[in-house]
Structures are given as C-alpha cells and as structure tokens.
Amino acid sequence: MDAVVSEDLVKIYEGGVKALDSVSLSVKQGIVYSLLGRNGAGKTTFLRIMATQLLPTSGRGHVLGYDIVSEARKIRENIAVIPQESRPMYILTVREHVKYFLMMRGLPMYEASQRASRIIHELDLEEYSNTLCMKLSGGLRRKVLVAMAMATEAEILFLDEPTTGLDPLSRRLVWDVIQRASRSGQTIFLTTHYMDEAEKISNEIAIIHSGRLLASGSLEEFKKLTPYKLKAEIPADNIRIEELREYGRVLKLGRRIIVYMADEESSRKLHDYCISTETPVAFSPLSLEDLFIKMVEENENS
Fold it and tell me: Of 17, 23, 218, 220, which sits most exposed with the smallest number of CB within 10 A?
C-alpha cells in the first residue's frame, strides 16, 4: 500500500482560480518525496488537501489507505504537518513547545520530555531550549516547528517548505533529521523550491507547474527525460545567441545564457569558440535545477 495517493485531484478557489488541475501521483512508504514548483504552482494547496486541511473540488485522495474526505480523522491520527504559514506561540519556550505538543497528541509526560530533549539536541537547539520563542529569530522559530513535527515520529510527515529562512548549516541539520526519519520507516512528503534540497535528500521527486503535474520519479529517471548531459553558462553581454545554437540548446536567463549539450564533443567545440572570442564560460554537469527550468519552459511554450 502506498502512503499517499491522489487521483485526478482538482482544486478551484473562489473566483475561478484553478490551483490544481487533475493531479495524480503516488508516494511509496518510507521514502522522502519532494514536490517542486515555483511560487504559486500549487504545492501548498496539494499538501494541505492531502493533510486534510483543505477540501478538494473534485478527485480522490488517500493517505495510508484512508480517504482524505470521509476518513480525515483517521489520517490526522497518523500524520504531522508543518504548514507554510505556521508560527510558534511567543509565550512558550522551545522545550515547552515540543513537549506540550507531544502531550496534546497523547504521549505521557516522561516520554514527551525524552523526545523533546532528543530532537532539540539533533537540531542544535539546546542553547535556546529554555528561551521564549518571542526572543528567537525567524529561522530559529522555523526550526522549532520542525522539531515539533519530527518529534511526533508520525507515520507520515507533511512538511511545507520546512527549511525556508534557515541558514545553510541549519538546513543541513534538518536534512539529516529528515533522512534519519525516512531510514526508520517514516514517510516524508515535503514541498520546496530549493533544488539542491530536493536533489540531496529525496528518493523521488515530482514537478508541478500552474497546477499540473509535469513529471515524477527518481533523479536518475528525470535525467533520462533529456538528451542533454552537460551545460555551459555564458554572460549574455556582447554575444549573439544565434552563434551558440550549433553547440546545443540555448536558453537566455536574465543576464546569462545557458547552453545545454548532449556530449563532450559539443562542449569541446564550444570551449574552443569561447577561447577564440575571449568569452568567459563555465561548464558543469546537468543538475535538477536545469531539468526543472527545461520542463517549466517547455510547458509554458507548449
């Protein structure tokens, strides 16, 4: 049985805005699954519907085999959620947040205290354990919410952009905690627009754009969707795009040009061209960000 399943899920908000357009996907148990998309793509809407916080307009969804509409209460007993817009209570300390949240979910005080201490240590929050949340920075408050959700050890964790506002070291601490939870058998469904985050910690990835699911699968499966293996980044100043088309697919992004190439021979020829024209260039393998940009661009041009 898959942990999360949606079938032709549609959400139309008041005013006729279609946030989700027949989204169908499935998430295996015990993996980290990342839903990627630009701001406003439909990521949060999908997560909120599957976490029983929002009703769909049409379509079906199941979490752990339970229907998201008729069996919402059973789902809520087995999940934990970090909403994008959530904030901790200012008058409680970090430890009190985690401990009281676990006790509200039915854990005895001793076990709640033990779990609170463990997650506070894992997320490097010990220094702030007895500090009121009103005195914390925005990033630290976000870590408190992550601690609350992770401490539940729920079967499924729905995390809506969990590392937004965190510094690079804190992001990696959260990644480590998420990966440990997955290895212990928990399923983590997260939304993000950080490509490096999805690439680093995800077992499977899905890309959503304008409410429609463009693709889903493992990173290796994504790489098979394109013939390109390498890319070159060139400043857009004083160079004609037409001169680069013979080397590969050309895309202009702001003040830079990206050339996608299928083989090393094309990259060698482009390198020689840039040397001869004294044009700065940087070569690198194709990344998830490149695949994301390519899919979104193709969808917008279709």
Answer: 220
